[in-house]
Amino acid sequence: MNIFKRLISPEDQNYRSKTTVFFICLVISTLLWILTKFAYQYTADIELPIQFISIPDDKVMVSKPDSLLRINVRASGFGLLRYNYFLKKKPFEINLINYRMQMPEGFSELTLGTTPLAQQIVERYNLPGQIEYVVPENIVLHFEDKQSKSVPVIPDVEYTLTKQYFAYDSLSVDPKYVKLSGTAAAIEKIYFVKTAPLKYENLTESIHQTVTILMPASKDFYEIEPKEALITLQVEKYTEAEIEVQIEQIIAPGSPRVKLFPEKVKVYYMVALKDFKRIEPSMFSCQVDLLGVKEFSGKRINVIIRDYPSYAKIVRIVPSDVEYIILK
Description:
Blueprint: H1 2-8, H2 13-39, E1 41-53, E2 59-61, E3 68-76, H3 77-86, E4 92-95, E5 107-113, H4 114-124, E6 130-135, E7 138-145, E8 147-154, E9 157-161, E10 165-167, E11 172-174, E12 177-182, H5 184-187, E13 193-194, E14 198-203, E15 207-212, E16 222-225, E17 228-233, E18 235-250, E19 258-261, E20 264-272, E21 285-289, E22 300-302, E23 304-307, E24 312-318, E25 321-326
Parallel strand pairs: 1-4, 8-13, 9-14, 18-21
Antiparallel strand pairs: 1-3, 2-7, 3-6, 5-7, 8-12, 10-18, 11-17, 12-16, 15-17, 18-20, 19-25, 20-24, 21-23, 22-25
């Protein structure tokens, strides 16, 4: 605090001058020390991620090569400082098109010497200095011929609907099949793929959602195309309605005439509001099977609904069975 007061005091001008000169000298000496230290040559490890691109379309990489190169270099402190703190170190891409592959009997092996790769990396980042060694010395890649087949996509969807709402059509997935590519041993064990799970509760609106297709739980090497699917479920609000339908008789030629009580039934059904006005009585067919009936038995016979609109959901038939008598 006393030093600060003396610096701002108008009576201590000589003291301020000496202090200013001191700090200037301190800054200059510090800069000179830094410049001297960073001008020296240092040995250090440079680590850089690598990735392989342009794998041949008819091949699958079945090995798991090193994804990190460790390059020991002897360079100036300035070069190392710039690399470590001022450069954005994106993965170094190794383009396999630039290398010749030996492919005996459908199997391929490629050995990459890492020293030339390390030299490319040093030149790309403009690092002065000399490469001492590289770890690993070689990268060995193994490939097999790629095989393909189509497998069905199974949507993994759970849902519930709000009262009076129904699925207008069945749940659909697009595409229905995907192309599965990989080694023969890998894909022969896979018979279908599933989508990522979806869950909906109390739906009142339709579903139209793109979802990821899951890779099968396996350590084998394969890929899926496409990687996404569209899940669709049309949901509509329904209302209950009824319609009166004449009962049709199924009888054998020459069979006695039969009288039904009653001769008509009421069909109760659920229909989407948008289809309500499309319903007509002629779209419904209710029957009783009288084949083999020879005499009045006092029993009742079930009424069967044979035809009705595909967009209607039958709730019940009233009555569900009728009496009959054989007319003489």
